[in-house]
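FAQ: What does the model actually see?

It sees only this:
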Amino acid sequence: MTATPETEAHGPVDFVLLEFPLDGLTGRASEELMKLVDSGMIRLFDLTIVVKDEDGAIEVLELTDPGGPGEAFSYFAGARSGLLDEDDIAEASVAIMPGRVAALIVYENTWAAPFVAAVRESKGELVASTRIPAPDVMAALDALDAKPPAA
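And it is asked to produce this:
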């Protein structure tokens, strides 16, 4: 059966802004992103690399520039759906610290699409959603581990 716009289910779409020190780039983040895309866990809509110099000037990098901070993400050159626009880039740039490079990524959690379809088939609706940052989860789990067992 072919999906139509009315019946097609998508996973949640997320926007993340990841900031790195210019001297800390290893290429490992791009390798892991590539694995997520290649495995089908996510679908990449947009990837933009932005550098903010020490004076606060912003430069959007081409992912194909050899030797530049965006080179590690060259596999994703052309990942532009239009969901991320110039206003979004300008707004995100305000959050970036001077002397840093950032990756703005918009992706769909395709792994969740079958669950979304099942919820829709059952006439279910999303009432609330939030993301708990990983450091908060790790701190809460560490605190639970540190508690003495109940008597």
